[in-house]
Amino acid sequence: MNSTLLVELFTEELPPKALQTLGNAFAELLSKTLRDEGHLADNSAVEAFASPRRLACRITNVAAVSPEKKIQERLLPVKIGLDANGQPTPPLQKKLDSLGLGAIAVDQLETISDGKQDVLHISRTQAGKALEDSLTKALDTATTKLPIPKVMSYQRPDGSTVHFVRPAHRLVCLHGDKVVPAQVLGLESDRITLGHRFLSQGVLNIASADSYEAQLETEGKVIASFGKRKAAIVKALAEQAAGDKVVQPDELIDEVCALVEWPVVYEAGFEREFLEVPQECLILTMQANQKYFAITDQNGKMKNRFLLVSNLLTPTPELITTGNERVLRARLADAKFFFDQDRKKTLESRLPGLANVVYHNKLGTQKDRNGRLVELAAALAPVCGADVEQAKRAALLCKADLLTDMVGEFPELQGNMGEHYARHDGEHPNVAQAIADHYSPRFAGDQLPRNPVGVATALADKLETMVGIYSIGLIPTGDKDPFALRRHALGVIRMVIEKNLKLDLIDALNKASKLFVAYPDFKHSVEGIGGFIQDRLRGYLKDQGYSTAEVESVLSQNPSQFADLPKRLEAVRAFSQLPESQALAAANKRITNILKKTEVGSAEVDTSLLQVDAEKALATQVKEVEPHATRAFEQGDYQQALLVLAPLKANVDAFFENVMVMDNNEALKNNRLALLKHMHGLMNRVADISQLAA
After folding, report:
1. Does residue 76 or residue 164 have the better pLDDT?
2. Which H/E stretch holds residue 193?
3. What are the residue boundaries of the DALR anticodon binding domain, all occurrences included (predicted)?
């Protein structure tokens, strides 16, 4: 009989940041094992539940007994399993006995060749498996393979030691309305679970798998579904905000959702004087320390009210809000104190203290690094369109806020606090913005620096980091990238392409490398870093929707300037749509292979040595096309530079059909190679179109 299956593991409070992952993995592992055991139908639906004190899974259309199935088992090679008279040998009889088939007749065995020898097989019907047996196996798999951040060891009442993410206390296993006998973590299954710790009567008797979610909600005051609980929180926050905006990053919503079983949103407030502190500090204080939600007006200006998500529904909410306001007030007072104290010293006055902050034991202090950033930012400023002196000033001050009390308390605010303090010190607005923006982009999709000074400073910071760290051997491996070199590389790529900077990457890396020559552990690795950045560039361009062939056509030429790559890729895409593109790509590939094998001196073609009509026609057409292609290329019209090559197809085909390139006459051979080399250069200025060959 097929019915809905429910499995719930009731535990002590689970780690909130891992709860959603644990819930999804628990359901996935359970359902996979049961599907492998044959209990699930094609249309069986799997639903995961996860709350602070439970992991659960509900699966529809689950069979109590899996279907019988025909299996074919390999026994032994014929030469080992049968004697000279065709009778079973002792090894075969032993194998059959182990399978419970001792009385099987030889004529019931099948002989199948595996390509090397004949092998005896037996076909038989395997009985279906009971759900209770499969479920215990599935539970063992699910609990041992969960992506647990840190495993706990605890003792059961019987003295046995159990290893799991948190102590588990109850196991519910229902198939329809029947309890499925199963065991895991020293627990025996039944239909009893617990509701909300304070809002329910405690013990709940689950009537059936289908009634589980509704019973928990109505009787137990628990919203078991992580997704539904999250949606309820978002809705309640919006209602309480009453037209204002709620600052609600996804990670905070997820963490709060993992802390409550029956979310209730309350509003509270704080004194207006705290709004004098930069709102980034206030918001971070609320989110990081207390899991509160800040409120802003529609223009993003913070208000002196906030929202909190409680696990308690009470007729006297003031008891909750007053206590939370008192706790937050102390936090905000600390932030205000740090802010006031920090402003008593200028950023510039803090610079000598950077000599006491080690950047890396092989690369000196933050003060040493500041010197490198100033020099590199000044070198990069012209290509970024930035004022050189402003870029130098921003690079000089950009790390000074590391020594402030506010950044010491909240490292996430480095850069942002530097901007506030720079404005207070009277620094130029471009410099102040650049101090905050030199860390940008901080993550995928983050905004780029707001002004050219910020771009120059951010490029200097990222290139200096990559060159220094990479060149002392700390190359990212696997998922380990402690200095975020991959993120820095992607930041450089985005700034160069999206800001359309005519930056020569190799030149910039060489300038950065020269700043480290005094360090004995530094090894010049510009080529390696360039390749590292190009690998990130490859992924970036594919993420923009370009195909592998299109990307490789432009990157195979190892460009040191990236700004025009999107234009080149669009040109390649347009060219690839032409009917002639495949033939020209294949011809280009053939030419590339010929030129690789043969040294060609000059690319100048001697027209007096052109003998065959096909080579004369091709040379003439190349000469006609070249000025149009060159003019388009020099004007940056890459599409036109490629499209004008299309008419070459017929003459290129005729050339390879009628002309012997490697002629015995050395002069003819070299002239034909020169023609191919000349045409090859013309065809591959925008991209290596041979990469488009199917």
Report:
1. 164
2. strand 192-194
3. 586-681
* Range 106-131 average pLDDT: 83
pLDDT higher than 70, residue 601: no
Task: With H, G, I as helix, E, B as strand and everything else as coil, classify residue 232.
Answer: helix
Nearest CA among 509, 501, 505, 507 for reference residue 564: 501
Q: In this predicted structure, what is the pLDDT of residue 659?
A: 82
Do 54 and 216 touch, CB atoms closer than 8 A? Answer: no
What are the structure tokens assigned to 283, written together?
A: 């918001």
Give the 3-state secondary structure of residue 88. strand
| Paired tokens of 692 | 């488009």
Residues 271, 636: Cα–Cα separation, whole Å = 59
- Residue 104 φ/ψ, nearest 5 degrees: -70, 140
Classify residue 19 by burial, with Cβ atoms within 10 Å: 0-12, 13-18, 19+: buried
Instruction: Give the contacts of 407 (CB within 8 A, at least 6 positions apart).
Output: 401, 413, 414, 417
Beta bridge partners of 48: 57
* Mean pLDDT for the stretch of residues 45-59: 97
Percent of the chain with pLDDT over 70: 99
The token pair that represents 197 in the structure block? 């710790």
Interatomic CA distance for residues 390 and 428, integer angstroms: 8
Cα gap 638→557, rounded to integer Å: 15
In angstroms, how far apart are the furthest CA atoms of the chain? 104
Q: How far apart are CA 166 and CA 15, in angstroms?
A: 8
Burial of 332 (0-12, 13-18, 19+ CB in 10 A): buried
Q: Give residue 376's pLDDT.
A: 97
Strand partners, 112: 119
Burial of 606 (0-12, 13-18, 19+ CB in 10 A): middle
Q: Number of helices (H) and strands (E), helices first, in the chain?
A: 26, 20
CB 291 within 8 A of CB 252: yes
Query: With pLDDT > 90 as the criterion, what percentage of the chain qualifies?
Result: 60
b/e 61-100 (16+ beta carbons within 10 angstroms → b): ebbbebeeeeeeeebbbbeebbeeeeebeeebeebbeeee
How far apart CA 261 and CA 613 sit, in angstroms, is: 85
Residues 6+ apart with CB under 8 A from 39: 62, 63, 66, 129, 131, 134
Task: Please state the length of the chain.
Answer: 694
Q: What is the DSSP string of 109-132?
A: -EEEE-SSSEEEEEEEEEPPPBHH
Contact (Cβ atoms closer than 8 angstroms) between residue 129 and residue 66: yes
How distant, in Å, are the alpha carbons of 202, 234, 252, 359, 552 from that of 192? Answer: 10, 31, 32, 57, 60
Nearest CA to 369 out of 346, 396, 343 is that of 396
Strand order in the sheet with 302-310: 245-246, 293-296, 302-310, 264-269
Predicted confidence at residue 603, as pLDDT, reads: 65
Q: Are 636 and 567 in contact (CB under 8 A)?
A: yes
Q: Which residues contact 200 (CB under 8 A, 6 or more apart)?
A: 194, 219, 220, 221, 222
Residue 359, judged by CB atoms within 10 A of its CB (0-12, 13-18, 19+), counts as buried
